[in-house]
Design brief:
Layout (H helix, E strand, L loop, with lengths): L2 E6 L7 H16 L3 E6 L5 H10 L8 H24 L3 E5 L6 E4 L6 E5 L2 H8 L2 E6 L2 E3 L5 E3 L5 H12 L2 E6 L20 E3 H9 L7 H10 L3 E5 L10 E4 L12 E16 L5 H11 L5 E7 L5 E9 L3 H11 L4 E14 L8 H12 L6 E5 L2 E7 L3 H11 L6
Parallel strand pairs: 1-2, 1-9, 2-6, 3-6, 9-11, 10-12
Antiparallel strand pairs: 4-5, 7-8, 11-12, 13-15, 13-16, 14-15, 16-18, 17-18
């Protein structure tokens, strides 16, 4: 019997009706002879609401009590999903992260899954009971609850699928992975199959349809992963399969365009030569758990000084500034907010040096200024004004031949 972990995201459990519909998809899969374990997110908007409540008391993401509040969102939807499955005549029971248990390490608000015990799930499935795991949460070595970072239910699902040797079906509100966010570009095309590396890069650059770490996990543990729509009837979703690179029949130079809003740019001006500003800056940022992106180091116009620029997510800006001011009191620090990042991703970029030039050209023709450009093996990213994101995504999508029809 095929074992499947089916994960339902926030909009797929966003109301009583949506929970009923998603439960119907599970019932249909069971009727087809599959053995299911289910993983659910909080109802859409709920995690933000709970984060706001903790914030009223000055607690942010990263506080152990914030994690306890946030984990409640998935607790509610796990119970409601188990009840909805009962309506379909199935036996079901919910599991919270600590009950499985899902073991984590790493800080509150951004924990990693260190391992999980799937025995309780196997026992339930063998007895014809559908287990429903509350996603996004686990338990730390000190016994406290931990959440896995935003979008983390995808990771819960990938980890459970790995533990059970199951396929992992990620149900969401679009019919798979598209060449860009179909909400911004209606001409975006669904991709039948995409390689782990390209999916990982799209996700890392902001395509939130899958959480990056879940893709990494699926690749490392050889979990078969698909993205499907929970908004269609059973069997109607064509979806996207995430596959090994060798299994892609049709090679494209560019696979997709991703974007991430709310980025900030930090610039440090310091004396060149005697100090190792860059090393000190990145060490300070790493110990403050700030993810740094798009790094540029150049000799500044002022002789004898060096300029270091990089981007961070806006939500990390305060933490980054505090850490840098403490570590480099003599450097001049400035920042710019209201920025966004657009990225073109494709395995074919490896051989195409001209893509960077044409990205400048395409954005320039649309009157969009590129503030910082960064490339890696399979992506090119540009830092631009937040306001220009949608225009930039559409322009690049068209220019790289991704528009439908
Ligand atoms: P869930 O709540 O199911 O986890 P998310 O909101 O996290 O869903 O992810 C699904 C959303 O991702 C879609 O509604 C879509 O707007 C967005 N998205 C961004 N980029 C892409 C892409 N390339 N393909 C599909 N969806 C995308
Ligand atoms: N509820 C969490 C979030 O909103 C986890 C998830 O949905 O995957 O980020
Ligand atoms: Mg998600």
């Amino acid at each position: 019997m095929t074992r499947v972990v089916a994960k339902f995201g926030g909009t797929s459990v966003g109301s009583v009706e949506r929970i009923r519909h998603s439960a119907g998809l599970i019932a249909a899969a069971v009727a087809d002879g599959e053995t299911l374990a289910v993983v659910v997110s909080a109802m859409s908007g709920e995690t933000d609401r709970l984060l706001g409540l903790a914030g009223e008391f000055g607690a942010a993401l990263g506080d152990e009590e914030t994690d306890v509040a946030l984990a409640a969102g998935e607790q509610v939807s796990a119970a409601l999903m188990a009840l909805a499955l009962r309506e379909h005549g199935l036996q079901a029971r919910s599991f919270l992260g600590w009950q499985a248990p899902v073991f984590t390490d790493g800080p509150p608000g951004a924990a990693r899954i260190a391992g999980m015990d799937s025995v309780a799930f196997e026992t339930a499935m063998d007895a014809g009971i559908v287990p429903v795991l509350a996603g996004y949460q686990g338990v730390a070595e000190n016994g406290r609850l931990r959440t896995l970072g935003r979008g983390g239910t995808d990771l819960s699902a990938a980890a459970l699928a790995a533990a059970l040797g199951a396929r992992c079906d990620i149900y969401t509100d679009v019919d798979g992975v598209f060449t860009t966010d179909p909400r911004i570009e209606p001409k975006a095309m669904r991709i039948d199959a995409i390689s782990h590396d390209e999916m990982l890069e799209l996700a890392a650059q902001g395509a939130k349809v899958l959480q990056p770490r879940s893709v990494e996990f699926a690749k490392a543990r050889d979990v078969r992963m698909r993205v499907l729509s929970s908004f269609l009837d059973a069997g109607a979703s064509k979806g996207t399969e995430i596959v090994a690179v060798g299994d892609i029949a049709e090679r494209r130079i560019v696979s997709g365009v991703a974007y991430a809003r709310d980025q900030a740019r930090l610039a440090l001006l310091g004396a060149s030569g005697k100090s190792d500003m860059a090393r000190q800056a990145f060490e300070a940022l790493a110990s403050a758990e700030v993810g740094v992106d798009m790094i540029v180091q150049a000799q500044a116009r002022t002789p004898g000084s060096v300029n270091l620029e990089f981007s961070v997510a806006h939500r990390d800006l305060d933490r980054a500034q505090t850490a840098l001011e403490a570590a480099l009191p003599n450097a001049q620090l400035s920042s710019e907010t209201g920025l966004a990042k657009v990225s073109v991703v494709g395995a074919g970029l490896r051989q195409r040096a001209d893509v960077a030039r044409s990205l400048f050209g395409v954005l320039g023709e649309s009157g969009i200024v590129v503030k910082v450009l960064a490339t890696s093996e399979i992506k090119i990213s540009a830092l631009i004004e937040n306001d220009a994101v949608e225009r930039a995504v559409r322009a690049l999508h068209a220019a790289y031949g991704l528009d439908q029809g």
